[in-house]
Fold this sequence. Notes:
The longest helix is centred in the first third of the chain and has 43 residues, at 2-44. This protein has helices spanning 2-44, 48-75, 80-83, 101-116, 121-138. By secondary structure, the protein is mainly α. Helix 1 (2-44) runs antiparallel to helix 2 (48-75), helix 1 runs parallel beside helix 4 (101-116) and helix 1 packs antiparallel against helix 5 (121-138).
Amino acid sequence: MNHTISASTAADSARVLELSDLTSQLSIIALGVLCAVFVILAVVRRRPGALAALAAAGAGSVLSYLLSEVLKMLVRQPRPCHLDMPSPECPPLDDWSFPSNHAVIAFGLALAVIVGSRRLWIVAVPLALITATGRWGVMI
């Protein structure tokens, strides 16, 4: 009986992790689409100042990503899949889990969305938080 319960619990946990990963990925896609819309609007409306601000936000996102890679090398947090039961799907041992690249990218995109329209912080910040919390459980 305990074997059935633990198998069921493991299956439920796997489903939760899959859903968490999916929502994380969809949030990043939504933020990317919003950024693309703002870039297109800036070009179509011929607003070079808005386009420059979006470009600066994009450059800041790239810089944040590079800094997160440096931080990963300093922290060297192993991925949970290396601590539990390593699987072939687990990234290499030197591919550290913290900080999450997905979370860094999501917050960078959120910043670019906010640069495009300050009122959309109410959408951008929760989407970035969804990505960050979604990666917390997955981290692979």
